Amino acid sequence: MRRFSFFILLLLVTTKLLAVDTVETLQDGIKVHPKTGAAKTIEINVVNSQIIRVQASPENTIPQVTSLCVVPGLKPTVPFKVTKTTSFAQLSTKDITVKISLISGKISFTDKSGKVLLQEAKRTFSPLTVENDKGYTFQQVFSGTSGEAIYGLGQHQSDDFNYKHKSEDLFQYNTKVSVPFIMSTKNYGILWDNYSQSKYGDPRDYKDLNQFSLFDKDGKEGALTATYTNKGSATIVRQESAIDYENLTTVKKFPVDFNFNNGSVVWEGSILSNNTDIYKFSLYYAGYTKVWLDGKLVVPERWRTSWNPNTFRFSFPLTKGKRTKIRLEWKPDGGVSYVGLKALSSSPIEKNGNISFWSEMGDKMDYYFVSGKNMDEVISGYRTLTGKASIMPKWAMGFWQSRERYKTQDELLNVVSEYRKRRIPLDNIVLDWSYWPENAWGSHQFDLKRFPDAKGMVDSVHKENTNIMISVWPKFYTTTAHFKQFNDKGWMYMQAVKDSIRDWIGSGYVGSFYDAYNPDAQKLFWKQMKDNLYVKGFDAWWMDASEPNIRDCTDMEYRKKLCGPTALGSSTKYFNAYALMNANAIYNGQREADNNKRVFLLTRSGFAGLQRYSTATWSGDIASRWEDLKAQIPAGLNFAMSGIPFWTMDIGGFCVEKRYGDSQLLFDKTGKENEDLKEWRELNLRWFQFGAFCPLFRSHGQFPYREIYNLAPEGHPVYKSLVYYDELRYRLMPYIYSLAGMAYHKDYTLMRSLAMDYTADQQTYGISDQFLFGSGLMVCPVYSYKARSREVYFPAGNRWYDFYSEKQIEGGQKLNIEAPLERIPLFVPAGTILPVGEVMQYSSEKKPDNIEIRVYKGKDGKFSLYEDEGNNYNYEKGAFSTIDFEYSNNKDILVINKRKGSFQGMLSNRTFRVVVIGKTNAAPKIVRYDGTKTIVRL
Which of 232, 628, 678, 778 could be bridged to 827 by S-S, CB 3.0 to 4.6 A? Predict the structure, then answer.
């Protein structure tokens, strides 16, 4: 009887709870007021049949806030169905179903077969007020899907690739670009629409080593032993309970008499954990660093320049009650340098394979679920939300030469002339920072002693059929008229000025950055560029320090003070999207000034939506080290799988160890190639071989100079290989530019993980050191000194051809492949149709009227050859052409279909030289093509 009474009471309470209509049908979805849970209001909005928006708030209404990354005006154009029960509401399109609990507010997403793709597990909100700006700190945890791999999140430098069971801190910094988008091999993605510092995975901060019981090198409990050694000075030994010297504030804890330039430090002792666990460690380092745990070298030597530290993460098992020896060796290698070692216990989020996004501040929780039939469709959905990728000017697909820096216009012009004299292909020369008078950063004026005729310099570059890019910072010295123009309107970040922060130029100058979140400030920024630089004929813009990086190596809270408040709110709330706003300023400004010339921007930071502003990102001031070369492969791949197709890096690395510079100076003086110079040349060559197959092909860095002829003398094996891959880039221009066209017309991704094309082969999910350039080339960079072979995995489901020898290899296996100094392993999957042109000195030198069409037998294949006018926006109006090639392996027939479309200057007639790869003694077929359908029997 009591059980029956309790059941009746529970039924009455539940009925009363649900008596209020908790579901409201909207024009584009539903609004729900759950009975429990952190969110009082949740909106589920249909964008299209594959994209759903979810907004959640702890308030009774959803704040209406304009998105910075999602394009405006997205309205549902597809039907959807809403059904309700007493416990759930369900919204269905033809492709996905969204189910929400009316009790808890938890949401699940299923495909049309009923398979669960993603479901919410936990949602939290905490109120936060910063500088009278109100909002919430919040977290959304999803259960994730077993067996999936997770990619995206921008580009980071810890050599992580698959983020399943991993975490990443999402903020902007030099070499770190955060994009809050992930993509799963289960063919869905999540766009997290928030601009504050965020965290993927475990939201906890790493803790100092004093979370453990510490013992010094003699076994005494309480701290580690720190031994400071200086040449010519007394050794300092002290006990330290933390290794925490990660910013300008904490480095003050170092001994006052310690000399960073000639010093070294060893921390040693033991740590004792209260738990048996696999701990995560975070090493923050500049200078030379090594770490041992339990006598094992867990971090072989790593190096970064002293002013630009990096983070490297690793895991190590600790046993409760067992001491683990620890040793960290550090050589600062600079006037001031940074080091830190912290740890965290394992996270249930990571262990369980959950997906989690945490953000420090926002007005509401706002995310988009994006589904597709494959990973390319997921990327397409991301670009539906955040904007189409522009087609870059064709010259941008060629080779760029840069260095830090060309100090005079004669230096720059001589480089262009030398490339032309040596007949080494080149399309773009880059003028880096400090072309202005020393005290006039932000004036956009040239130092006339070094650059007496900037317009004449640009004209001379153009006469050599080369383009020129110029560096522009959002930074202004207080002495410039441009600073005053911004400051008079209240459009400058003034904390650096108030604190009289001096930069590193000369005796130091005071300045700051403009507020790019202000639309009127954006217009002024472009006007200053247009009036002073664009009028001189510069072709492209290099937007440096766009994080914004107002001062290196500050703690996070002071960084936020330096770059705020913004026009939209506190810098805590608007911390990550500066580069996006800055790109908007230039892109829309130039298109208003001249809508017939393609905009091109290169920026050191980025955010979701960057691709719509014809902007590419490079990976910042990375080190000239083998470990940094290796780390760029997963960094570039994850950036591409964040939906932004154009990425590049400083080939050879930016920051250089002193030994390399010294070896070059010795060679310049004596002609002697010592061991360090041999390594330097090999490092640059291996990096160059990798870079030739990246979306953008760009060499840049500090001394030694990076021009091909400066890296090695003519006739040297390194010189020959550098020229070979430069020329190969140009021979592949019909293929590469077609991929660039696909990035706009088909939302394509140029730099591809193996998993994108071979998702059914789970062996591809963790392969971070190979990639596809388009679907037709598998690139296998070499990233170890003196390596003359490397292991290569050949994805299952296809046969593979060695690009050089045409040898065939069956898929589904790992093999050790030769990698002589002059070549990196490069493979072509069966079924590929690869257009190959002639060697050119620049991308528009020759008409593509004689193209070799390589057909790789073994599988049916397709390729669409894309062409347009190359440097304007007429393609947006339909001025382009495509020629579709289709190969039937069984019939051994290549169909060259009727040409579609047209544009001014299009070739009416051309020759295709069809070469069959995989067929013994097959003679090339010469095809005179006039735009009509042609069948070639092979």
Answer: 778
Cβ of 845: how many Cβ atoms within 10 Å? 14
Please give the Cα distance from 635 to 616 (Å, whole number).
14
SS3 content of the chain, % helix, strand, coil (to 5): 25, 35, 45
Nearest to 696 by CA among 639, 750, 733, 648: 648
Centre a 10 Å sphere on the Cβ of residue 73 and count the other Cβ atoms it contains. 5
In contact, 494 and 512? CB cutoff 8 Å: yes
User: What is the 3-class SS of 660-677, one letter each residue?
Assistant: HHHHHHHHHHHCCCCHHH
DSSP 650: -
Beta strands in 260-384 (DSSP E): 263-272, 277-285, 287-293, 296-304, 310-318, 323-331, 339-344, 355-362, 365-371
Question: Burial code of 450-474, b = ≥16 C-beta within 10 A, e = fewer?
Answer: bbeebeebbebbeebbbbbbbbbbb
- Strand boundaries in 556-684, DSSP class E: 601-603, 615-618, 647-648
Closest Cα to residue 53, out of 242, 215, 199, 190?
A: 190
Separation of alpha carbons 208 and 214, rounded Å: 11
Which residues have a Cβ under 8 Å from the Cβ of 259 and sit 6 or more positions away?
230, 233
Q: Name the phi and psi angles at 557, rounded to 5.
A: -65, -40
Terminus-to-terminus CA distance in the chain, angstroms?
86
Cis peptide before 645 (omega within 30 of 0): no
Catalytic positions are 544, 547, 621
Give the residue ranges of DSSP H helices in 198-316.
none
Crossing angle of helices 658-670 and 675-691, rounded to 10°: 110
Write the single-letter amino acid at 207: K
In angstroms, rounded to a whole number, what is the distance separating the alpha carbons of residues 518 and 491? 7
367 within 8 A of 385, measured Cβ to Cβ: no
E strands of 345-398, at which residues?
355-362, 365-371
Characterize the bridge pairing of strands 428-431 and 467-472.
parallel
Chain Cα centroid distance, residue 807: 34
CB burial of residue 293 (10 Å; 0-12, 13-18, 19+):
buried
Pairing between strand 29-32 and 41-48? Answer: antiparallel
Please give the angle made by the CA atoms of 229, 230 and 233, to the nearest 5 degrees. Answer: 110
Q: What is the CA radius of gyration of the chain?
A: 29
C-beta separation of 332 from 658 below 8 A: no
- Alpha carbons 530 and 3: distance in angstroms, whole number: 80
Helix/strand/coil (H, E, C) string of 198-211? EEECCCCCCECHHH
- CA–CA gap between residue 642 and residue 637 (Å, rounded): 9
pLDDT per 10-residue tile (average), the chain, 938 residues? 44 42 92 98 98 98 97 92 96 98 98 96 98 97 95 97 98 98 98 98 98 98 97 93 98 94 96 98 98 98 97 98 98 96 97 97 98 98 98 98 98 98 98 97 98 98 98 98 98 98 96 98 98 98 97 97 98 98 98 97 98 98 98 98 98 98 98 98 98 98 98 98 98 98 98 98 98 99 98 98 98 98 98 98 97 98 98 98 98 98 98 96 94 97
In this structure, the number of other CB atoms found within 10 A of the CB of residue 937 comes to 8
Phi–psi pair at 16, nearest 5 degrees: -65, -40
Instruction: Tally helices (H) and strands (E) across the chain.
Output: 17, 55
